[in-house]
Amino acid sequence: MTHYEIKSQKELRSGFGEGLVEAGRQNENVVALTADVCGSVKIDAFAKEFPQRFVQCGIAEANMVGIAAGLSLCGKIPFLGGFAEFVTGRVYDQIRQVVAYSNKNVKICGSHAGISLGEDGATHQTMEDIALMKALPNMTVLVPCDFNQAKQATLAAARHEGPVYLRLGRSKMPNFTDEAAPFVIGKAQMLNEGSDVSIFACGHLVWEALEAAKQLETQGVKAEVINIHTIKPLDTEAIIASARKTRAVVTCEEHLFNGGLGDSVAQTLALHCPTPMEYVAVDDRFGESGTPDEMLTNYGLRATNIVEKVNAVLKRK
Amino acid sequence: MKTLQELQTIATQVRRDILRMTTAAKSGHPGGSLGTAEWFTAMQFNIMDHDPAHFTMDGQGQDMLFVSQGHITPVIYSTMARRGYFPVAELATFRRFGTRLQGHPSTAHGLPGIRMASGSLGQGLSVGIGAALGKKMTCDNHLVYTMHGDGELEEGQIWEAVMFAGDKGVDNLIATVDYNRQQIDGTTEQVMDLGDLKAKFEAFKWKVVVVANGNDMQQVLDGMAAAKAMTGKGSPVAVILTTKMGYGVDFMQDTNKYHGAVLSADDLPKALAQIGETALGDY
Predict the structure, then answer these.
(1) Could you give the C-alpha distances from A36 to A33, A165, B37, in angstroms and in order?
(2) Looking at chain A, which terminus has fewer C-beta neighbours within 10 angstroms, N or C?
(3) Would you call A93 and B58 a contact, using CB atoms and an 8 Å cutoff?
(4) How many domains, chain B?
């Protein structure tokens, strides 16, 4: 199978931070806002280089969303950054009214998403954010898989006209994609071609999916691994083509079972090519404190869990 | 610019529009609309520097207005149409399927003059601040105006925004509060006492203008002129506009009954007779 090397262990939020500075250099209309978490969400470098284009909102996320929408009216491209739970769930109605419904060019960047946030516990570990954001008309939902891709996704979001939700994790994760690979919104990324099963993954689970494919290869199972970095608009063509080829599907995400990547894929399959499918996702429950490693392992989000689900779906072919 | 008498005539016609639109639609919010007819008329015709024929979403080179309590669309749309943003005849489509005149302001139907959806309360001040910051960043010295219900001030986001604007000195922003002391479930005193509103804004480093009678056109003009004169001096400006909900029709006045309830076809002529007719004519 295609070989991928871990170049470094890096945080996706840092990829966003680097991408934001680069976007700021490319386009003077890029501005950034935060709610007292400038360093945590890696907006500090941008704030230092472009102090006149940075807005510190204090601990007031609702106000921040409105200010961002107002700035967008004047031709600005606002990136607002905060903890994913507090820039999605906490301010869902604000996003609905003045970003999505009003169709403004605002980029909502949620760091510390998912259970791999770890020790902070369930109050801060959003695993519903994809569901919330993808439900909104006009909203684009991006879930990059590593540092390099997070940087490219940030640049792509800056070029894209319209509301975007960019999901980012806090913890260091394998950085393995090509740093120069352009990020095309809405275009799934083929990472490994296979013929026996399709593994559709997003975010931190993409690396786990590649590890699973390696293990499956030793069993003689050829797994296709596709990175669905754009949950919305979904690359249904790529999903249907792969499912038609392999006739078995497993989805992998650091999100609740309800409303995430898995449901988007299931909907596509049900409508266009019904195919046996299994989910690797978190059941209908909240997280807890623990190290990022402990969380991913205890909540069933590891390569071994993906292999189990592949074996389960293969029996249903 | 209109004379005082011309403005008063327009406000009278706007009141007729409000009642006819809401009764025709069998829904809508006449109470707060009637109470703010003078303010919206003054803003559209004399206070704001704007050009309806050249409406742009970015509002560059023009003043901008965000109405946070979006439910008062009857007065918003009537004054916009009378000012020339769209044909007056279109007021007949208010709240009907396919209309640009949605129940609450929307940007999704292409109505010139609306830059943001509103009506989910408490959000318009934040949007206004963003636009005001945007004007500063783009070196546009025009003003941003916002309008709020007094009951709306119960929303927490308002105070996030009040704190921000005061602290950051957003001094190209004028926020007006329709101080009619009525809300859906009763008076503001009954539901949630606003206390000393002027002192509250001042505590957050705002300058405050109080208009004692916001249904007196001259007082509205003077109050808004005073507010404009306070801009550009390091502080945002609040205008506490004392009005009567339902002003202009005796049985609709000083009650919250007509916040979101409309006159029946039988009661409409009685109300219109009290308001009187104008040479501008009905839509």
Answers:
(1) 9, 19, 41
(2) C
(3) no
(4) 1
